Structure formats: structure tokens, C-alpha cells
From TrEMBL:
Protein name as catalogued: ABC transporter ATP-binding protein
All residue ranges annotated as the ABC transporter domain in the record: 4-227
Highest taxon above the source species: Bacteria
Residues of the full protein shown: 1 to 227 of 365
One MF term in the entry's GO annotations: ATP binding
Membrane-spanning parts: none
Length: 227
């Protein structure tokens, strides 16, 4: 039930530069979509428009069949994982994951269940009582992902979640994200990267962007396997 549909979406920043023209894209529920393209091609802009952090200058964006152009980020049923893991430094791993649910006044038992389930999924159970500073970069990024999972969003948005990790952690965390996709097959996942390997290993479909346009859309094989 969480299709994401962009119809003739445009983006013009305040400086009048048109960075997106006429983006049309139909993302199906449960799909893992990866936006790839060189720096500056508009990947983050597209993701921020879907999240609501950035306004759409034209066209319509629908989530779950509802036009969300004017709906604030908190009411879109989405959760974002950013490149830099902005964890609360004075809160434990548990509390970092529980916080948004506490704010939303979710019952304590439900919070506990959600947090422990997410921790299990991300192999964070042994670290629940630690502070972020006592974790590796990869573990911190998993906490950031856990914080998104507990909210049970309809749509996950990932903005270059691996780019701050060193090579070994990048591979391990990429595998965690692939596992996440397997454990939450109904969740729609939209992922931005400039890394072709990430795109090929994670994507159901890849959207290749270039200078604010969709250049190509297709499966990893269709896009990268040249005859
Ligand atoms: P990517 O994520 O692919 O690197 P961005 O979405 O960050 O690309 O940027 C796309 C284009 O929009 C770039 O030309 C960039 O300079 C421009 N841009 C991004 N943010 C702003 C902004 N706040 N104001 C003006 N131009 C911006
Ligand atoms: P303090 O009491 O130290 O001011 P804050 O909660 O204001 O604590 O912020 C501490 C850290 O948590 C900051 O590094 C900030 O970037 C991060 N942070 C604050 N709000 C959020 C949020 N909504 N999501 C993720 N990280 C946040």
C-alpha cells in the first residue's frame, strides 16, 4: 500500500536554477529503488522532496495514493537514514531507538518490543546499554537504521548511508541493509548512492539520473550488463 508516484515533478531552487524537470516515476510497494548518478545530478534533491524536507516546485508527489505535496515530513509515513548518523550522544542505543516512539506516546511495552525486535534484526542486542561514542561507525549507522525501523514506516529513505564508513564496514553494513530488505518485504525502500556496487547489489530497479533528468530506469542487469 505504499506506492510512491512522481508525476511531472519539478524543482527550482530560490536562485531560479531549475535542477529537476519533469520527473515521472512509479515506485511500487515493496520495491527497493536506487537512485544513482554523479555528484550534483539531483539525487539528494529528489530524496528530500519525497521526504518533504524540500518543497516541490511543480507536479505531484503521491504516497499510498495520497497527494502529499503539502503534507509535512512527519505525516508522510516515511523514515530517513542519513549519511552522517546524527545519534543523540547522551542517550544509550536503546534510548536512541526508543526516543521517537516515546515522543509519539506509544505504550512502553510496545516500545520495548519494537526496539528489541529492531536490535535483534540489526545484531545490536549486546549494545543496547552503550552510548554512541562506545560504538564503531558501522554499529552507529545500524542504530540510525534501527531508529528508522521502530517507527514502522511505509517508506524508508536512505541518503548515502554507507559513504562515511571504511571499506570493510561498508560491505558489512550493506549486507545488513540487504537483510533488512528480506525481513521487511512490504516496505518500500528508496536509496541514494553514487556507488555502482551498492546499486547493483541492493536494487530491484535502478534509476540513473543525469543533470536533473531520469536517464534510464531498469534492473541492475539491464543497466550494467552490456552484451
Ligand atoms: P546530488 O545529491 O546528486 O549530489 P543535489 O540534489 O545535492 O545532487 O544537487 C542537485 C543540484 O541542485 C546541484 O546543481 C546543486 O548545486 C543544486 N542545489 C542543491 N541544493 C541547492 C540549494 N539549496 N539551493 C540551490 N541549489 C541547490
Ligand atoms: P543537547 O541537550 O546536547 O543540546 P540535543 O538533543 O539538542 O542535545 O542534540 C544532541 C545531538 O543530537 C546533536 O548532535 C544533534 O545533531 C542530535 N539530534 C538532535 N535532534 C535530533 C533528531 N531529531 N534526530 C537526530 N539527531 C538529532
Amino acid at each position: 500500500m505504499a506506492d510512491v508516484k512522481l508525476t511531472n515533478v519539478k524543482k527550482v531552487y530560490a536562485n531560479q536554477v531549475e535542477v529537476m524537470r519533469d520527473i515521472n516515476l512509479d515506485i511500487k510497494q515493496g520495491e527497493f529503488i536506487v537512485f544513482v548518478g554523479p555528484s550534483g545530478c539531483g539525487k539528494s534533491t529528489l530524496l528530500r522532496m519525497i521526504s518533504g524536507l524540500e518543497e516541490i516546485s511543480g507536479g505531484t508527489l503521491e504516497i499510498d495514493g495520497q497527494v502529499v505535496n503539502d503534507i509535512p515530513p512527519s505525516l508522510r509515513g516515511i523514515a530517513m537514514v542519513f549519511q552522517s548518523y546524527a545519534l543523540y550522544p547522551h542517550m544509550t542505543v536503546y534510548d536512541n531507538m526508543a526516543f521517537s516512539l516515546q515522543i509519539a506516546k506509544v505504550a512502553k511495552d510496545d516500545i520495548d518490543q519494537q526496539v528489541r525486535k529492531a536490535a535483534e534484526m540489526l545484531q545490536l542486542t549486546p549494545y543496547l546499554d552503550r552510548l554512541p561514542k562506545a560504538l564503531s561507525g558501522g554499529q552507529r549507522q545500524r542504530v540510525a537504521i534501527g531508529r528508522a525501523i521502530v517507527r514502522r514506516p511505509k517508506v524508508f529513505l536512505f541518503d548515502e548511508p554507507l559513504s562515511n564508513l571504511d571499506a570493510a564496514l561498508r560491505v558489512a553494513t550493506r549486507m545488513e541493509i540487504a537483510n533488512l530488505k528480506e525481513s521487511m518485504p512490504d516496505s518500500t525502500m528508496i536509496y541514494v548512492t553514487h556507488d555502482q556496487v551498492e546499486a547493483m547489489t541492493l536494487a530491484d530497479r535502478i534509476v540513473l539520473l543525469s543533470a536533473g533528468n531520469i536517464e534510464q530506469v531498469g534492473s541492475p542487469l539491464a543497466l550494467y550488463e552490456r552484451p
